[in-house]
Amino acid sequence: MQSTESSFENLRNDFPILKRTVRDNKRLVYLDNASTTQKPNQVIDAITDYYQNHNANIHRAVYALAEESTEAYEAARDKIANFVNVKNRQELIFVRGTTEAINLVAYAWGRPHINEGDIIVTTEYEHHSNIVPWQLLTQEKRAKLEYIGMNDDGELNLDDLDKYLATGKVKLVTFSLMSNVLGTITDAEKIIAKCKAAGVLTLIDGAQAVPHMKVDLDTLGCDFFAFSGHKMLAPTGIGILWVRKSVLQTMSPFHGGGDMIREVHKYETTWNDLPYKFEAGTPNIADVIGFGAAIDYLTKIGMDNVRQHEIELTTYAMEKFAKIPGLQIYGTKDITKRGGVISFNFADVHPHDVADIIDKEGISLRSGHHCAQVLMERLNVAATSRASFYIYNTKKDVDALIDSLNIVAKVFKL
Amino acid sequence: MQSTESSFENLRNDFPILKRTVRDNKRLVYLDNASTTQKPNQVIDAITDYYQNHNANIHRAVYALAEESTEAYEAARDKIANFVNVKNRQELIFVRGTTEAINLVAYAWGRPHINEGDIIVTTEYEHHSNIVPWQLLTQEKRAKLEYIGMNDDGELNLDDLDKYLATGKVKLVTFSLMSNVLGTITDAEKIIAKCKAAGVLTLIDGAQAVPHMKVDLDTLGCDFFAFSGHKMLAPTGIGILWVRKSVLQTMSPFHGGGDMIREVHKYETTWNDLPYKFEAGTPNIADVIGFGAAIDYLTKIGMDNVRQHEIELTTYAMEKFAKIPGLQIYGTKDITKRGGVISFNFADVHPHDVADIIDKEGISLRSGHHCAQVLMERLNVAATSRASFYIYNTKKDVDALIDSLNIVAKVFKL
Amino acid sequence: MSSGTDIYHEMIVDYSRNPINYGEIEDHDVTFHDSNPLCGDSIDIDMKIDDQKVSDIKFHGKGCAICMACTSVLTEITKGKSLEEVKKIDKNDILSELGLEHLQAVRIKCALLSLKVLKSALYTYLGAHLENTEGIDKLKTEAENLY
Amino acid sequence: MSSGTDIYHEMIVDYSRNPINYGEIEDHDVTFHDSNPLCGDSIDIDMKIDDQKVSDIKFHGKGCAICMACTSVLTEITKGKSLEEVKKIDKNDILSELGLEHLQAVRIKCALLSLKVLKSALYTYLGAHLENTEGIDKLKTEAENLY
Ligand SMILES: Cc1ncc(COP(=O)(O)O)c(C=O)c1O
Ligand SMILES: Cc1ncc(COP(=O)(O)O)c(C=O)c1O
Known about the structure:
The complex is a heterotetramer, with two copies of chain A and two copies of chain C.
Chain A: H1 5-11, E1 21-22, E2 26-27, E3 29-30, H2 41-54, H3 64-83, E4 92-95, H4 98-113, E5 119-123, H5 132-141, E6 144-148, H6 158-166, E7 170-176, H7 188-197, E8 201-205, H8 217-220, E9 224-228, E10 239-243, H9 245-248, E11 261-264, E12 269-271, H10 285-301, H11 303-322, E13 327-329, E14 341-346, H12 351-359, E15 363-364, E16 366-368, H13 373-379, E17 384-388, H14 395-411
Parallel strand pairs in A: 3-15, 5-6, 5-7, 7-8, 8-9
Antiparallel strand pairs in A: 1-2, 4-10, 9-10, 11-12, 13-14, 14-17, 16-17
Helix pairs in contact in A: 2-10, 3-10, 4-5, 11-14, 12-14
Chain C: H1 10-17, E1 30-35, E2 42-50, E3 53-62, H2 65-78, H3 83-88, H4 91-98, H5 105-128, H6 135-144
Antiparallel strand pairs in C: 1-2, 2-3
Helix pairs in contact in C: 1-2, 2-4, 2-5, 5-6
Bound molecules: pyridoxal-5'-phosphate (PLP) (2 copies).
One pyridoxal-5'-phosphate sits between chains B (34, 97-99, 127, 129-130, 176, 180, 205, 207-208, 228, 239, 371) and A (258, 281-282).
């Protein structure tokens, strides 16, 4: 597939929802992709096919359906391993999403390894799911949670990291590879290099990065990595936790139950091999298989093309935004350092009112704190409006957004 | 709908998978319903419709799609509340399945409430997911896990319960409402009455009961109740934890992240209202809605009819089984005290070999320990074969099973 | 103008820029804070109570135009009322005043956050000034049944 | 007879009822236990080692006909072999002996459980009898690369 506007225009046909209208017969302009993406027919059909033809519980039975479903489930694991360049499939654990992934680490790695006085370092632009689990853990263990600050362009101040590492007490540094509010792409290589030099583990929240750019875990060199399927064309309810094997081997079990055990006796139990030790109970089989179909779809497009498409759209949108008086964009303007997420405020109009008014024009835009209240405090705003793009968005969508902002200006007499 | 064999025969048309053949063009005879059930078109279509027309993240946005998906998601919660007669929807938490539900209780209720020397009581016929979480918890807290034994008919010996309650140290009694191996229906009322008298909380694993009989949580009177959607026509990846509000209010948060918070600051956070405090991150939205469709489907049939149909099938099967020399059935023969799950062993043939041979005839049967190794030890067997029925099974399916067992007899020269 | 912008009429826009009763009461008899976990709107209400009547009321916080307008209207309605009357203030009193009867579910939460804060403040005050402990259960039930 | 019952030929059925080398060795030089978490099959292998050779081998445990037949064949193959030769025993040595080359994935685990136990026993023995600690990393790598 060529990375031209017309080929991206064509793939809109794969997304049935884009054909519907909303409110007063308005064309749907879906710009909340950082929250969740729409699904192509290929993914929807994979789920349907699974239930119509193969559905059975996995791993335990010998009959035909069980054989087929187990194979499809494990094939999806291989596809995902390949997609983010993980060499050892035993390191990939299926979870509900990024939130469960990070909490799993906080419980199964954090509780055995974090002690009183230890420090966990996160950043000011994290999603709540990369803050609250560490608050809970550090409170329980009388450890400390510290924040890497950022400058006004939304770039991390790595001097803060040096300062914390120098204490010798840091056990984990955790950060998002792409901010879900500012779009900032974190300089992961630099952070990981510093942490490795200090013998400190790193966790990356890849929820925003993996859907929008090529990510290579083998070269990245972090120790934990989390992402969600639903933000990259896959169904809701499925995501990935990757953990380097040498670290995974030091983790306690998380959930107890079926499939994660080797032998259960009344008073003692032994554990199954990796990754199954961390996949207790009947997993979300159909959506794992749907995730595999989403990976196939993105692979066919090519992640470099996805990134290129978003760079084009974001550049176009930023130029248009710059011409609207009173419209303030947050984060860096350097397009090579940010993804296709644009947070803004429009004069003194509250983001909720912006979102509500333009919703009536068919524009689906997120307003609020975007699960990043710490960042809102840092930016000294109550909320922002946020437009975020994906493969099916076009310049026409950006134009529609700009037009709708004119209505906001009229209503609020700007 | 009338509870006649013919109306149950008709609803087979709703299940596309039942039309397919397996192995050498054999009719699919699906008898592993205790593991997971097949899905009717109504459920598959609900998922498809969600992705084709309404998909958006819930709770946080104002635009049209988000409004629709939030409404559908919360409507499913109401349907489920109604189905198991829960008066307060705040008490229903969406989880991946029974396993996650029980682990959530072990972490979020167990860790703040269980102390050294306390006792948690379970039973000998529990699924691993109602044993291992309590092993992990009691080991961490230096508490004790005790077992209510059972007689050779697979009925619990409640004298054991009395004995443990008499110590005054029991904090929780947990049991399955229906055994997934023996089919035993537990006398929950009696156990709960004893526990209430002793001021002890009760947890019920309803994974096998809710799909197969009317369950009324309002009259039952337990404190925690868990079940899985995929065992009752709903998609994989979705289940329910119900907790009595007064108990839920004493529980710590489980996962930290989006949607479960009220206000996040750098060093402290406050929690959202119930049930959202326990639903961190993007939930499995599509499958919640699919669960709602499954509830609609079962409600239309009527759970009393479901139970009646299974009683008829089980009676028929038990009579046929009784005539096969060397075939031993486990558990009570009293059909009013058991569900449509029949575990058996056939002479000296290992259950795996039984399952493998009859798979070639199209029969999907489970063999193994059924995630109940403690029970296998109690029965003094390595494994059993298990046939389990659901609404779409017919006497023809039972006949096919019986015929296939003749082949096993021939191969093993019985 | 499309139907959607109908709710953003003159009065709402004005109130959002010039809210009534905005500020703090230093020597308040009761204050309460709450926020909307979904959008981050956050409101504090301070009240002065004399003779079982709300002699003064002020609010501050951050919120959208709907939230600000509703809080303005609510505080205006509340001022001077007896505590028994405040108990009876209903969401429709606010919504109808502003023509917001048909708000969608998410926005209803913006519109009614201040009512929730007001009622919480009221029951906090009542709880703290109970003459005997007998009334506490009744109060609790009343408070629990609010939503 | 349908294709599926092909794997259940005479030899498999016989071995399942009358396994070879079944039992325990009281004065074994090494013993190892493992089980298949999915189905509960469980095997112990005991070995006597003399002059770097397997002078005796016995197994006990519970398993299906496939598991029992394969373990019988495996122990028969192993007996008398040098430890270096045991390292080289391959899954196909067992599967081909019993005509099980085309087993489905779940059943492969039944067929090869005993091979896993044998190799674990072997490396346990080798690890315990290392002459110096230098060889341990090589051993570990060999053991890790088994599956
Ligand atoms: C009685 C019982 N409890 C718990 C479970 C676990 O349910 P799930 O795998 O959906 O978490 C099962 C299903 O296997 C079961 O039968
Ligand atoms: C950066 C980031 N981390 C974590 C999450 C949480 O992902 P999920 O809700 O799928 O668990 C999100 C999505 O909202 C996100 O944008």
